[in-house]
Design brief:
mainly beta, Pnp Oxidase, Chain A, 163 residues, 9% helix, 7-stranded antiparallel beta sheet, globular, binds flavin mononucleotide, 2 helices, 12 strands
């Protein structure tokens, strides 16, 4: 059997970081039904019909245990005005939503009012992805508006610069 290569995780993360991502906050409810969320850069579109999207979450992340098939969640696309929200939801805070303006959605999980787009989903499938889970969401409702998407590139928040 072929040996699995062992790479330096920091260097591999830096290599992955050569490709910019958008920045989203995935909001969901915790075990007590309280809104919480996690900053996610791995969000991507998947399918138009049916409408599907996906993101990956580290298995060691506290929020990973909240995701199982059918669970509702909302992917909120952050704008360049929302770097504070990106950092807030990337910290292990007791109340991640403290001071955050929230609006109810069809799936009974609140969205972030200041997001430039949101996708309200039910988890369509949870797949194994090494040390991550891959969450595929079926989109039940979405909206988008004007604004510049926040970019994460080489470990830093950036604004999109047109050529
Ligand atoms: C810009 C950015 C993008 C991130 N993307 C991801 C991601 O795609 N998957 C992931 O598991 N963690 C990602 N993280 C890290 C989590 O947001 C962070 O570990 C968070 O504290 C996890 O929350 P939890 O402990 O409530 O699960 C990202 C962090 C930042 C700042």
């Amino acid at each position: 059997m072929r040996d699995v290569p062992m790479f330096d995780p920091t260097d591999l993360r830096n290599a992955f970081g050569c490709l910019p991502t958008g920045v989203t906050v995935v909001s969901m409810l915790d075990d007590t039904g309280t809104p919480t969320g996690v900053t996610v850069g791995s969000f991507t579109s998947l399918s138009l019909a049916p409408a599907l999207c996906l993101f990956s979450l580290g298995k060691a992340q506290a929020s990973a245990r909240l995701f199982e098939e059918g669970v509702p969640f909302v992917v909120n696309v952050l704008s360049t005005e929302s770097t504070d929200l990106a950092w807030q939801f990337a910290k292990p805070l007791e109340d991640k939503c403290e001071g955050v303006a929230l609006v109810e959605t069809l799936v009974q999980v609140p969205r972030l009012k200041d997001a430039i787009a949101y996708f309200a989903c039910h988890a369509h499938g949870i797949h194994d992805g090494g040390d991550h889970i891959i969450v595929v969401g079926e989109i039940l409702e979405y909206e988008h508006k004007e604004g510049d998407a926040l970019i994460f590139y080489r470990g830093q928040m950036q604004t999109p610069a047109p050529l």
